[in-house]
Every structure is written in C-alpha cells, then in structure tokens.
Amino acid sequence: MRRSHVYLEELLRPHVLGWAAWRAARGKRDQPDVQRFFESLDQELLALREDALSGAFPFRPMNRFLIHDPKTRSIEAPCLRERVLHHALA
Length: 90
Hints:
Elements: H1 8-11, H2 14-24, H3 32-39, H4 41-54, E1 63-68, E2 72-77, H5 80-89
Antiparallel strand pairs: 1-2
Helix pairs in contact: 2-4, 2-5
C-alpha cells in the first residue's frame, strides 16, 4: 500500500473546519454551547486552527452524563470545539 502525505495545514483549512463544525453540531443545534459557538463561528474556527497548528491546543474537561437504557452507564463526550477538530481530522 502506498502512503500519501497529508499535512496538518491542509486538514485545517477554513472550509474544512466549517464543514466539520456543521457535522459536529448535527442534532445538537438547540444546546446553548453550540449556539454560542455558531454566533462567533469565524473567530472560533480561526482560534481552533491557530491552536491546533501551534501545538498548544487546550483540551477541556469531558462532558459527563448518565444514560439509563437498558442499564445505567456513565458517558463522557468531548466539548464541541474538540468534536469539530475530530471531524476535521477524520
């Protein structure tokens, strides 16, 4: 199998991050943190890109919640900013 080189700058282009933001927010648009993120989308994506390219990306605590179907489980999910980065890199 032949490898192709993909650079981080290519994965973090503004249009890729915009697409990733819409994918990460799918089904969550009525949540307050998602609405705040999209109110200043351009600034958020620019800050996200700069942090990721500089290597100083601040990871935030995971959101923890319980589900009860069919038994009680504790779920941890990343914040929206990290989900956007996950979608951009996937």
